[in-house]
Amino acid sequence: MRNTQPDFFTDDFLLDHYVGKTPLVRLQRLANHTQATVLAKLEGNNPAGSVKDRPAYNMIMQAEKRGQIQPGDTLIEATSGNTGIALAMVAAMRGYNMRLIMPAASSQERKDAMRAYGAELIEAASMEEARDMALQMQQEGQGLVLNQFGNPDNVEAHYLTTGPEIWQQTGGKITHFVSAMGTTGTIMGISKYLKEQNPEIQIIGLQPSEGSNIAGIRRWPQEYLPTIFDPSRVDRIMDIPQIEAEKTARTLARQEGISAGTSSGGAVWASIKIAEENPEAVIVCIVCDRGDRYLSTGLFSVED
């Protein structure tokens, strides 16, 4: 008789079952001065520690299915950190060589995590330069750029997984969704799914305020705006001050027991602002990674 039980030791089974399905928790103290419900989606619980595990897995697996790549090939990507770590993990499991280009100012923990998974790391002066370098390397035949900034598989990962999870975990009661915007894949995929369930759900995208430097999110120059971004899927864009994002990240750890990075602090800060404006709201925000990726930056060494 043919064995129909899953093989628990295959890469496919491990990735399919352990990427995603992250917890959604209610903030107990930071928003208790409001009547709204503020829920945090803890994406640091993914295997490589961030929300980027979802698109990294999907981009590689879909490229394999299309016959664009096969184990032994070299993959190239420009990254601010989390996508690179996730891609390095999946590449190691699937048998690819991974070359990652990232801004030199990125935290040491991120660089070390990429190298730990066997990736080759190349440093650039900025994220824009990293993207240009990746495309140049592809033109020179050094490998394939997965291009998270223009790859529909990035958006699809969140449309198929993160969006449905949020809808199910809130019992369809979500009224506002809040997410930082970097590649914009997270907000694009989740917005598409949630709006199909209830067009009245408000989608709020976050970008750094002028002069702020927040890892993982950007105010892109027009020529570098991700091609997967559709502004019609975002109802409101909020500017996040760096100082507020950093303070909220520290408060989130100290008062809620949730250790996360600066962009997650910004998402929680924005969610609290929305909760103050909308007493009956059910707000979900993305806590995109874990705080241990930022220890060397001194983020948690400051007393507010």
TrEMBL record:
<dbReference type="InterPro" id="IPR001926">
    <property type="entry name" value="TrpB-like_PALP"/>
</dbReference>
<dbReference type="InterPro" id="IPR005856">
    <property type="entry name" value="Cys_synth"/>
</dbReference>
<feature type="binding site">
    <location>
        <position position="263"/>
    </location>
    <ligand>
        <name>pyridoxal 5'-phosphate</name>
    </ligand>
</feature>
<dbReference type="InterPro" id="IPR005858">
    <property type="entry name" value="CysM"/>
</dbReference>
<keyword id="KW-0028">Amino-acid biosynthesis</keyword>
<feature type="binding site">
    <location>
        <begin position="182"/>
        <end position="186"/>
    </location>
    <ligand>
        <name>pyridoxal 5'-phosphate</name>
    </ligand>
</feature>
<feature type="modified residue" description="N6-(pyridoxal phosphate)lysine">
    <location>
        <position position="52"/>
    </location>
</feature>
<comment type="similarity">
    <text>Belongs to the cysteine synthase/cystathionine beta-synthase family.</text>
</comment>
<dbReference type="Pfam" id="PF00291">
    <property type="entry name" value="PALP"/>
</dbReference>
<feature type="domain" description="Tryptophan synthase beta chain-like PALP">
    <location>
        <begin position="17"/>
        <end position="289"/>
    </location>
</feature>
<dbReference type="InterPro" id="IPR001216">
    <property type="entry name" value="P-phosphate_BS"/>
</dbReference>
<protein>
    <recommendedName>
        <fullName>Cysteine synthase</fullName>
        <ecNumber>2.5.1.47</ecNumber>
    </recommendedName>
</protein>
<dbReference type="InterPro" id="IPR036052">
    <property type="entry name" value="TrpB-like_PALP_sf"/>
</dbReference>
<keyword id="KW-0198">Cysteine biosynthesis</keyword>
<keyword id="KW-0663">Pyridoxal phosphate</keyword>
<keyword id="KW-0808">Transferase</keyword>
<feature type="binding site">
    <location>
        <position position="82"/>
    </location>
    <ligand>
        <name>pyridoxal 5'-phosphate</name>
    </ligand>
</feature>
<dbReference type="InterPro" id="IPR050214">
    <property type="entry name" value="Cys_Synth/Cystath_Beta-Synth"/>
</dbReference>
<dbReference type="GO" id="GO:0006535">
    <property type="term" value="P:cysteine biosynthetic process from serine"/>
</dbReference>
<comment type="pathway">
    <text>Amino-acid biosynthesis; L-cysteine biosynthesis; L-cysteine from L-serine: step 2/2.</text>
</comment>
<dbReference type="GO" id="GO:0004124">
    <property type="term" value="F:cysteine synthase activity"/>
</dbReference>
